């Protein structure tokens, strides 16, 4: 159960990152965050009303609100980095955020078996290599790396917070709704401040209404990934769930290869293979 939902998380996040990276090449990153999360919040609001999830309100929602504050910062940093550098380089570095839930899980007493420990090492190394990270080059590349590392810290923190935000399915809907509403408020405030200081809030041609389905896909895939990760973390060790969920950069890199014809270098192909081997070790350990 843990492996299945964690791998589903990787697939959803990988596709959401690919879509978000494409959108930020024409639309400011903050606008992508706010619009995509607003669509997700609207859909979740309908689900919350339909399921009566309001009855699950309690102190755990503070974890969801905290995740909602951290999330926009991480998403903005990550989408901005994706717009500056090749997806196949930036995305794997974002997976370094897995160190946060791993550390928390170990601190709380989780002790994976020897095979799972080996799987963690192999999977993390594979994910990093899957992007063939380049630390040399123009200032834009260095800026993309710094933004990605900031995003990684934020993603790892969201991993921990969202796993604590609910204890039931209906409670999860409410927690995700609270997280998205906070995302929109925090991101919208940052967007308003950015526009007031002279930054563009929209592309030159105005809001790209034709791209609205893409915004919706990014927002809904992201929220679905948060949901599947929460389920994975509640059905097994957080250390295992976090590592398997961190395989999403492989999905992003493969999507970039398939749709944008970004070539995979030898080290990237080897990294993808290692990531898959590590995931099998974790799932069977």
Strand proportion:
under 5%
Write down the Rg: 18 Å
Summing up helix and strand content along with how strands pair, one would put the structural category as mainly alpha
Largest sheet: none
Which spans of ≥5 residues are poorly predicted at pLDDT below 50?
135-140
Number of helices, where a helix is a run of at least 4 consecutive DSSP H or I residues: 12
Approximate helicity band: over 70%
Give the number of DSSP strands: 0
How are helices and strands ordered from N to C?
HHHHHHHHHHHH
Shape: globular
Q: Could you tell me the mean pLDDT?
A: 80
> How far apart are the termini?
14 Å
Characterise the protein shown here.
Helices cover 76% and strands 0% of the residues. The protein has 285 residues and is mostly helical. The model is unreliable at 135-140 (pLDDT under 50).
